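[[Encoded backbone]]
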Amino acid sequence: RESVMWAPRSTPLSSHFHHHQRFPPLLSSSIPPKQSRSQSEAVPTDRPIQQRGEARLLLFFPPHLPKIYFCSTAAASSSPRPAGMGSRRGRPQQQQYPPPARGGGRGPIPQQQGGGRGTQGFTAAPPQHPRHDAAAGRGRGRAARGDGPSSPAPAAAGPLGRLPPELRQAMEDPSPPPAQPVPVPAQAEAAAATGQAAIPASSKAIRFPLRPGKGSAGTRCLVKANHFIAQLPDKDLHHYHVSITPEVTSRVVNRAVIHELVNLHRAAYLGGRLPAYDGRKSLYTAGPLPFASKEFQITLLDDDDGSGAQRRQRNFKVVIKFAARADLHRLGMFLAGRHAEAPQEALQVLDIVLRELPSARYAPFGRSFFSPDLGRRQPLGDGLESWRGFYQSIRPTQMGLSLNIDMSATAFIEPLPVIDYAAQLLRSDIHSRPLSDAERVKIKKALRGVKVEVTHRGNMRRKYRISGLTTQATRELTFPVDEGGTVKSVVQYFQETYGFAIQHTYLPCLQVGNQQRPNYLPMEVCKIVEGQRYSKRLNQNQIRALLDETCQYPRDRERDITQMVKHNAYQEDPYAKEFGIKISDRLASVDARILPAPRLKYNETGREKDCLPRVGQWNMMNKKMVNGGKVRSWMCVNFARNVPDKLARDFCHQLAQMCQDSGMDFALEPVLPPMSARPDQVERALKARYHEAMNILGPQRRELDLLIGILPDNNGSLYGDLKRVCEIDLGIVSQCCCTKQVFKLNKQIYANIALKINVKVGGRNTVLVDALSRRIPLVTDRPTIIFGADVTHPHPGEDSSPSIAAVVASQDWPEVTRYAGLVSAQAHRQELIEDLYKVRQDPQKGPVSSGMIRELLISFKKSTGEKPQRIIFYRFVHAQSENTRSCAVCFH
């Protein structure tokens, strides 16, 4: 609660970009969001966006392994349990190992936990022993409350490594109880044959220890967090399984069926209960229903389309069957610090209850809800607009149960007439001319799957989903009207049937229905239905517009969040009332500390050899990079048509001069003069220019060190294409610069780009003074390697693209400033990293260990000359449920 460690993380932007911070943005600051960055390194030229994730420190001390620390950056709250809190009263167990256990709280992986308050939040795990139990009492060597017999435990194999002083100070009892080692699942034996990573059979195979204590450095202060305290209900919750026949995949239809069932039968058959439904198979009630299993017949009527015709009826059979009781007692025990793990099932029930009413009012997407009534719409360009909304999630915290609320924004398709939408998309007036083939294909891709409603039939607004676009103009389209082969043109049909004269006959028609028997709708009679979220990738201009809309001062964000909570009126929510959930309408106050800024070390040859950042800002004036990289041969390719060759040459010369002045060994002249190339020929231009350069460098036995690419501000896929060619095909370092940076000719921009280039070519910009003086806790006292891992998933709608796993690791010590990275493609939307550790079968050597971790450990040894004695692993996990399992796999 006092100490929250933030892990900055640069990521590609998601197309739908839900702009929210999970836990918790500090709302007391008065610094504008765009001014809280370092002047020297906070304006990245390749990827300008940074996101933040919460970090939670998890400690492991097995004596036979290097010290390993896990920091999971999942969007989950820290464990609310105080250090050393046992999970139950100690019960002595008969074991074959004679040494007695000592009182002292939880170990990391116990099967039986002693009750009472212990004195330590971590312990050392002896290697390769069967299960054993650790008692934790108030006294040493006793069970709960210090009056029971001691609990035997296995003797440790090998000496226990000396703990860091800062951790030893947090302990009252210097002798921690032994704890059960991580069990090795049966899958490990088969790993060599399958070539797959050994994965624990269950997330319960890993028990993470509690934090040893709270920090004390810095200036104490009180901040507000976007959490609203919730009271845990005392209701008896029941879980029922729901089966709807015929089965439908739409949550909207499922909810409509259950809503109709509740309206019809709540009083007669449901005992007056108001159930909460997840839209799939689960239904929850605050108390039992009058039956264990019951079948209902429900009829749904389609919405009135204004035609006056009889509405279509759909019949459904609904079977509700008792499944289990939802245990809130374990959640209460967890919040009170008397249980080891948060019961996810109970949290899921509460989350479903609080989402029931917003799901009916707004458009739900993921954990967020959007509506045009929740804020102003902002045009994003190309037929898109942003809708405001809010993110909502129930979380267990050290304050107790709380509802996390934040503001969100995402892109929706504007509800425009289709012709107007197409004109915005093409950025051209199409009301008086036919479409080219390229334009038709672009419109077809954008409109496929979009819902439209017809406007030529008065109040009758029937809806259709677009499946394609005709290759022929409307005036050329005909279709059979009877079995005798009589055909009629679309223009003639609309005139005779509806009295509607089609004006834009040169435009294609929309195809709706199936591909075998499509129906044709002229573009001018169709309007896009409101409320359709845009799930594809946004371009740079749209991303910029969305960021401008969502970037707020903390006080403005606090105001909007508070107003959103009042607008939602949780105290009047009938579902929250039914289940006994009460939500506070005030932001939670959290104890915090402002940590002192670390002093930065620069090269001794500069006028200023170190600096102390102020308010998170510093610059490179009068300073030189602590270790400048070497760039002896480089070249520039200009893909921006509005940047003349002379300006490109001047930009490159000024940039080279800045790199040299900052401490790099940088050649002032390129191998070849800057060359202009077309953006649609990036691969051909790069490879041709590269071979020209190598014809010059080859005889000298030199390599090309750097390629500078000048890109248009709205570069689309050009950036990715350039990086792919340079890094995969040519194997050279590249640095991209936008047109606006070239035109500014600003020294600050040159300095920022120079810092990026230096790191890419193996240099170091700065190091921490505390690292050189060996004063960084848990890092500088012994050789330490720091890992970071994440998985980036394809954008929604890309069903066949692989997910990309990335792992980085520090390559120097004690500075931990240089990092090496590895990437690996894996199964679509697979969150666990498959190539983290593998065992492959070698014909001569037999089972051979491999994987990304092994490669980076070997690289660290070659770079530093030391084997790491401690490992710190940061793992970003997108889903709370994946947190424990992902960390378990990493550790195993």
Observations:
- The CA atoms of residues 57 and 71 lie 5 Å apart.
- Residues 1-205 have pLDDT under 50 and may be disordered.
